Amino acid sequence: MSSIDDPERQYQLSRERLKDADLHPDDIDAVLEFLDAINPDISTVNFTSENGERETKAYSTLAAYAQALKRVGELANTPLVEMPDTRAVNAFFDDVGSGTHPDVKDDGYAKSTLSQWQSGVTKFYQYHDDLGIDHSEVVVKRQPKSSVDERDMYTPDEIQELRDTVSNTRDRCILELLLNTGQRIRAIQTLRVKDVNTDDGIYYLNTDEAGLKGADKNGKKRPLLGAKRAVYDWLKDHPTGEPDDYLITCLPTAQRGTPGEKLSQSTMRERLKKLADDAGVDKPPNPHNFRHYFVTACKRDYGMDESTIKHLIGHGPNSKVMETTYQHLTDDDHIESAEVAAGLREPDEESPLTPQVCPTCGEQLEPEAKACPGCGTVFAPNAKDTEEQIQEDIKQNYAGSEPESEVQQELSAVDEALTNLPPKLKQQLIEELSDDDE
């Protein structure tokens, strides 16, 4: 049985409600045909975009379109398939937006709601271009892209308070995955046991699940970074340990739930809220706040380039997310640069993803540590890159050597030595190379 969080199930429910709605029969048929045309799993009808290629949408978008077109069809006095012209479509939206429509509350619908409805209607008429409505002239009242309110951002001290309050390995795994990967809750929720590799410190997005919102288009492989130990500890306590079972599932001692089945998003959110309440952290404990924390750390504290950040969090290279959602980073950079130049403050060298105590070996960590000097566990994104750079650069320098040459034999010895490098020396090398890259 599919989960309530499954986008495909949500779409099927929206589709059934559409079929049962009090709409003109021709509207129902036209909307269902449109939805089939943009469904990636149906090929009998196709939606051809303006560039001549087939266009499909994720199930979450299909569900949103089905709900929007159902509601518009219920409120409109004229069936969608009988609208006389684009002016009539825009007049309808003006009425429901202003509250002058007889079946709408006095202050009308919010712009965000209208924007969703208008987007669905626009695509509907783009597909049904034989209905005589110019989809490009349907006015979409788009909300400006919201930016992160930095007052809601966690501080490193608040993150540490959350870490100190976690009471079981599963909740710690959830917290550290959200904090160290920047992924949306759906991506974390759908990870399977076989999708994580704590030996190599990596995980793979589960592309068998819908609802990743394009995060997998940049590739599936991602670094675990500071979540590595938390994932390892939870795997030891996992109620089944079966490779195909979900990583985030019920606790072994739980009275409810099926071991190995994915935890619902509502339960995950409830656990995060309880964690914040118990820790006394009075800021939104929603999963996206951890995503914002991760992006902020990568950009401001680790100097990661924007293309890499967008790759890690699942945005395409042309995404404007850094210029919109994370505008506060640019503002803060200018303020800090001015204050440092004026001698009013020292440059902030703290590493915000680094815990006070290494979760692997228990070593006390300095705030600016990018890796543990006791065991070598890596916490900062650029430190991990540096670790890989150490080995890759040496290999590249001798890439042209004969396979059996003394140089290659020496290279193999150096490669092995780097792998077994004492943690304190490894940490020193990471710090020095990181400084060189800045």
UniProtKB/TrEMBL annotation:
GO terms for molecular function: DNA binding. InterPro entries: DNA_brk_join_enz, Integrase-like_cat_sf, Integrase_catalytic, Tyrosine_recombinase_XerCD. Pfam families: Phage_integrase. Gene3D superfamilies: Intergrase catalytic core. PROSITE patterns: TYR_RECOMBINASE (PS51898). It comes from Halobacterium sp. NMX12-1. This is Site-specific integrase. SUPFAM superfamilies: DNA breaking-rejoining enzymes (SSF56349). Keywords: DNA integration, DNA recombination, DNA-binding. GO terms for biological process: DNA integration; DNA recombination. Residues 149-340 form the Tyr recombinase domain.
